[in-house]
Design brief:
6 strands, two-stranded parallel sheet, alpha+beta
């Protein structure tokens, strides 16, 4: 059961509860957000659906959660449903369902490639909300931010575009993007990839990253761009080394890599959030999480010593390959390269 499957399962439970009168909600949400449990949670996945529905239903969140829980206990693939905190629903999947979740996740990434996480959730945004002027004399950060936001919005189906700041007033959007101007000549101080990372990694209201850390090509020097690009390069190196062993990736059994699986499953949500909030920094931070998880997992991928290749190695390799694909796709949206070798 993938997060998307679980989201649909919860949505069906909401509709059942509304249909049988247990929840008096006029407008049922079109989608349910499912994510990894936060501090204090439990199980494999969680949702705040009950908290969102409590107001419209005029009921306490925990009571709404109990209504939904009753309709989720017999859902296929779900072993247990717990209510935590003010009304979060926490799901523990059946052991076989966890393996199936990983298999479907990896297969989905392989099939969608660099477009994994793209969708049409923002396709109905009014045109005047997704047209962004680039004023005459705009600094490098504002120009870079604008074009990146356009790319993010397009990845979620919005008809976004950047327009000449000299266009007639009627053609300009209601809101302009704003960002703190750079405090140094970023383009002169840094190579192209590092320059874009310096401009996009901080939130727009924060100042750009200093140049010095981005010139340190090490994992421990504070250069988060290097960490992300290095993780991608490591995923490709694993594929090359596996080919030398006659090993190909295929997700055949459950892989014990909860942080990496969670980060990959969270990629569509991270992309949507970055687009919705016009915040490339959200995507950059997510890629850092994927990279950290992959680098912590990489040493278990290939056989060691006299160990013979097995289904476990093929499954780990498939997961590492999927992580590399997610990193490459995310970097592409930021306009940053994903080198195969570093």
């Amino acid at each position: 059961m993938t997060p998307a499957d679980l989201s649909l399962t919860v949505l069906r439970a909401v509709r059942r509860a509304v249909g049988d009168g247990a929840l008096a909600v006029r407008d049922v949400p079109s989608r349910i957000v499912v994510e990894r449990p936060r501090a204090g949670g439990r199980g494999d996945w969680a949702t705040n659906a009950a908290l969102r529905l409590a107001g419209p239903a005029a009921l306490p969140p925990r009571q709404v959660a109990e209504v939904l829980r009753e309709r989720l206990l017999d859902a296929p693939g779900i072993e247990r449903v717990d209510i935590t905190g003010p009304g979060f629903l926490n799901f523990t999947l059946r052991p076989g369902a966890r393996a199936e979740t990983g298999r479907l996740l990896v297969r989905g990434i392989r099939e969608q490639g660099l477009r994994y996480g793209h969708g049409d959730a923002l396709g109905r945004l009014p045109e005047d909300e997704v047209r962004f002027p680039v004023p005459d004399g705009a600094d490098l950060r504002l120009r870079t931010l604008t074009h990146c936001v356009v790319a993010l919005l397009r990845s979620q189906g919005a008809p976004a575009r950047a327009v000449d700041g000299r266009a007639p007033a009627r053609a300009t959007p209601a809101r302009r993007l704003r960002a703190v101007p750079p405090h140094y000549d970023v383009a002169a101080a840094l190579p192209p990839d590092a320059a874009r990372w310096a401009l996009l990694r901080p939130a727009a209201h924060d100042r750009v990253l200093d140049a010095a850390p981005l010139l340190r090509l090490t994992e421990t020097g504070g250069n988060t761009l290097f960490t992300v690009q290095y993780a991608h390069a490591r995923s490709r190196a694993l594929l090359r080394n596996a080919a030398d062993l006659g090993l190909t990736g295929a997700y055949e059994e459950e892989v014990d890599a909860p942080e990496l699986l969670a980060a990959l499953a969270d990629h569509p949500r991270a992309l949507l959030a970055a687009a919705r909030h016009r915040a490339p920094d959200r995507l950059a931070r997510h890629l850092e999480a994927v990279a950290d998880a992959l680098l912590g997992f990489q040493h278990a991928v290939l056989p060691l010593g006299e160990e013979k290749p097995s289904a476990a190695h093929r499954s780990r390799l498939a997961l590492a390959e999927a992580a590399g694909t997610v990193l490459a796709g995310g970097l592409s949206l930021l306009g940053v390269s994903a080198p195969d070798r570093l």
